[in-house]
Amino acid sequence: MYIMPHSQVKAFSNVTQEEFRGFVGYSAADNAVIVAVRGTDDIVNWIGSVDQTIGFVAYPKCDGCMVNAVMYNTYLEMSALVKAQVQFILSKYRTAAIYVTGHSIGGALAALAALDIKATFGKVDQFYSYGQPRLGNQNFANYL
Fold first, then answer.
1. DSSP run (H or E) holding 33
2. pTM (2 d.p.)
3. What's the pLDDT at 20?
């Protein structure tokens, strides 16, 4: 995992295999914290994450919600670093908006990040996800 010390941009990745990456940074032009998660790197990466035979696990923040186990566990590996950097930036720029984005599997991870960030910091001002695979059941989709 690469981290630039004392920077307003911090890269992150999941711990076990570092297959998924992104960054949290600050845009002065937009006065916004930006959380971006990279999409699928290769076909093996994509197949393993969207394989519906792997199963779903309960999503603890909503009743009856189930999410893809691989994607959820992958996000949990990145969660602490993502939230720590968001907190670091918000401590310097208290009025900053929070934007979260991702593409492909990064979009699914970004959806989990957006929910986690909103629960932790009370807001997500904009969320963009495109081309993401199915992340959860209908209850989870309604919750999201």
1. strand 32-37
2. 0.84
3. 73
